[in-house]
Write a structure and sequence with these properties.
This protein is α+β, with helices and mostly antiparallel strands. The protein contains 17 helices and 16 strands. The longest helix has 29 residues.
């Protein structure tokens, strides 16, 4: 039998699930799964996600033109590991094993990931057995004059918990290993059996700094599953909120990176710009982070002409202010000395892990979910996707800076052309059964949400995937060979989400 040439060709080898929208899903028996593994080894299709049910594992792929979900039935609680052909799957497989008890066969790493042995029960979404607490075996590094530096999970400052284990030779980092999971909240378990409204509120809180992106993706997944079409005005208001969220976070990130390079002046001024965006978000949408403003079928509230005029004026003001600040960054030799050539991630590694967002685009991967696969209203808006190839801290700052310019342009276009009409569709009550999936570009990168609705309209299963899953491993690679003192700079240039990753 000829090897499947395309992703859709591969889907045709399995049993198609008719209720899955907008992209296909096919279920495979174990004896056909080897075709999936072989084809992944031969292709460069990016991995979008890997998650589990009680007795099956799901794999989302993107071949740059199509998206599909491939599912494997696991009646014996085991599945072939994909880590050898998709290293980005390693931690996702470990998480599936922790939550559901599904064991990846021939896995490169079988250590627990989210489960630290303190939940009171192991495999809480699957077999539910007594916990098995044990010491976590960090990877070893061999060589003369090496020493270990443990950092976290509690850090100086108000930041999320995560442990970093350094092996260093003097000041040079030989290996960094991360241990995450401290911010695990049981999101997927809390969602099961919830109403769509409650599930949406939970997903909106997976990672607070990306609450708009998560609500956007959840709403689109529900709409795909049920066939609901939000009205045009709602779609444009969603994009407006998404670009405001992107602005606020990029301003905050650039300032924080500069602060870690001991240039607190830019940190202070970028903090002012971020605050201006947050205050306008509150004035227009009733919440500084615009939490719970995007709902299935549309948006929760509208804005008036005065809000539109104020947002347009804000965009003009921010453009001028930021241009001055960035000129200061770009002309400060002592600051550039810290950011240029520091924390480099190669383009090959970014493509191998399928990392998106500014991490991917700073290393030459041009993926942006607003453009591909795309979603309304971005097909009607004019914007560019900035891409660089250097892959260092400076490149990640430059990508953010250029994205700020693009977001300001988008905000002005949306404010000028915002269509009239209703802000929410009349949806079924309760929501109809079905399966839906969505991909939305957050400020970090692509946020994915997959869900299944029951006959009574409640959520049977929902999996939100943060872009940080594919970015955290690259931070380990970026720090290698740099000095320990540059780790905060590298870490902040990634600004991966702990909470979004830990679920």
């Amino acid at each position: 039998m000829a090897a499947p040439a395309t992703l859709l060709d591969l889907v045709s080898r399995g049993n198609r699930v008719a209720a899955h929208r907008p992209w296909p899903r096919a279920v495979f028996a174990r004896d056909r799964w080897h075709e999936v593994v072989i084809r992944l080894g031969e292709s460069d299709w990016p991995l979008l996600g890997l998650w589990a049910d009680a007795s099956s594992v799901h794999l989302a792929l993107h071949d740059e033109t199509e998206i599909a979900v491939l599912s494997l039935e696991c009646p014996d609680g085991r599945f072939p590991s994909l880590a050898s052909v998709r290293p980005g799957a390693i931690r996702l497989e470990r998480a599936a094993a922790d939550l559901f008890g599904l064991v990846p066969e021939n896995a490169a790493d079988t250590r627990p990931w989210l489960d630290h042995g303190r939940w009171g029960i192991a495999h809480p979404l699957g077999r539910r057995i007594p916990p098995q607490a044990s010491a976590y075996p960090f990877l070893a590094a061999e060589g003369e004059n090496l020493h270990q530096i443990p950092v976290g999970p509690v850090h100086a400052g108000i930041i999320e918990p995560g442990h970093f284990r350094f092996h260093a030779n003097g000041e040079t980092v030989v290996r960094l290993e991360e241990r995450l999971g401290y911010a695990h909240k049981g999101i997927e378990g809390l969602i099961e059996g919830s109403t769509v409204e409650r599930a949406g509120r939970l997903v909106a809180r997976v990672s607070g700094d990306s609450t708009v992106a998560y609500s956007f993706a959840f709403a689109r997944a529900v709409e795909a599953a049920t066939g609901i079409e939000p009205p045009p005005r709602a779609q444009w208001l969603r994009a407006l909120m998404a670009e405001l969220e992107r602005l606020a976070n990029h301003f905050g990130d650039i300032g924080a990176i500069c602060n870690d390079a001991s240039f607190s002046l830019l940190h202070a001024h970028c903090g002012v710009l971020r605050e201006m965006v947050l205050q306008e978000s509150f004035a227009s949408f009733g919440h500084r982070l615009m939490m719970d403003q995007i709902v299935p079928g549309g948006v929760a509230g509208d804005i008036g002409d005065s809000n539109r005029a104020r947002i347009s004026a804000l965009a003009v003001d921010l453009r001028g202010r930021f241009a001055e600040l960035f000129e200061l960054y770009d002309s400060t030799a002592s600051l550039l000395d810290r950011t240029e050539g520091t924390g480099i991630v190669s383009g090959a590694l970014v493509r191998r892990f399928g990392a998106g967002g500014f991490v991917g685009r700073a290393s030459g991967r041009p993926f942006d979910a607003r453009r591909s696969p795309g979603y309304p209203p971005y097909g009607e808006l004019d914007f560019e996707i900035p891409v660089l190839t250097v892959g260092d801290v400076n490149a990640r700052i430059l990508i953010r800076a250029r994205e700020i310019g693009q977001s300001l342009n988008l905000i002005e276009q949306i404010s000028d052309r915002l269509p009239g009409g209703p802000i929410k569709a009349d949806g079924p009550a309760p929501f109809a059964p079905g399966e839906g999936m969505a991909l939305v570009e957050g400020f970090r990168g692509d946020v994915m949400v997959w869900l299944r609705l029951r006959e009574d309209g409640r959520v049977a299963r929902c999996h939100p995937r943060d872009p940080s899953w594919f970015q955290w491993p690259l931070l380990e690679a970026a720090v290698e060979g740099n000095i320990v003192a540059d780790f905060p700079l590298c870490n902040k240039s990634f600004n991966c989400s702990y909470s979004g990753h830990d679920l």
